[in-house]
Design goal:
236 residues, alpha/beta, 7-stranded mixed β-sheet, 7 strands
């Protein structure tokens, strides 16, 4: 029986080192840890979720694919049920950026010797800033399109980054962290169209927000420059 991952989860799985001590936070169906075990990437995993229903689904998946006994299912609010020494690679995927931030803020030990794979569903610019202001460094960013939606996966470790977040970089990340095998040109065009609509709305507003208009205009200019560099093969 073959388990297929969605493009979003495949992108996360590709960043999991072979033989690591892996934990999946907010595991839901436990597709990610089961796939990693069945494909020989890891021997065992911790799969945690806040609610009992997702853990029941995770247990069913583990049983269906012969991974019972190799997945430690835990009911946990974020990382509270994990000890710092239990995992050196942690995935937090499919949650809002504010939730991801709260989980990490409650577990400062994740700044020491832990590989974090973060796939936020929202508030990505704010999460980027929070990470680099709180002892984390974004080592790599990957973009992926699944159906009609774009997702970003961040590879994060502890460390000082010294990143200056310009309006464009807050939206799509720093180009020096972009993975070379991702469709950045398409992603930049998508984000430019979104910014174009935002700018048109700001220009039509009865009460102008000049600060926000300046920010959007600057972000457009940055993304246009990076798009053009990508098309010339100069980025990433």
């Amino acid at each position: 029986m073959t388990l297929e991952l969605s493009p979003r989860l495949r992108t996360v799985a590709a960043l999991v080192p072979r033989g690591c001590r892996f934990a999946d936070i907010g595991t839901d169906h436990a597709y990610l840890p089961v796939w990693l075990i069945r494909n020989g990437v890891i021997e065992a995993a911790i799969a945690a979720d806040l609610r009992s229903d997702p853990l029941a689904r995770a247990r069913e998946t583990a049983e269906r694919y012969g991974c019972t006994g190799r997945i430690d299912l835990r009911r946990s609010d974020g990382l509270e049920a994990l000890a710092p020494h239990e995992s050196d690679c942690i995935a937090i995927a499919g949650m809002g950026g504010e939730t991801v931030r709260g989980i990490l803020a409650a577990a400062p030990w994740t700044r020491e010797g832990v590989r974090l794979l973060l796939q936020p569903q929202s508030n990505l610019p704010e999460l980027r800033e929070w990470l680099t202001e709180n002892g984390y460094a974004i080592r790599q960013e990957r973009c992926i399109r699944e159906e009609r939606r774009w997702y970003t996966v961040l590879l994060v470790t502890g460390g000082e980054s010294g990143t200056a977040w310009t309006p464009g970089a807050r939206i799509v990340g720093q180009p020096e962290t972009w993975a070379a095998d991702c469709p950045w040109g398409d992603y930049l065009r998508h984000e430019l169209e979104r910014l174009r609509r935002q700018r048109e709305g700001l220009l039509r507003a009865v009460q102008p927000d000049d600060a926000r208009l300046d920010e959007v205009t600057q972000a457009q200019a940055e993304l246009e420059r990076w798009r053009d560099a990508t098309e010339r093969g100069e980025l990433p």
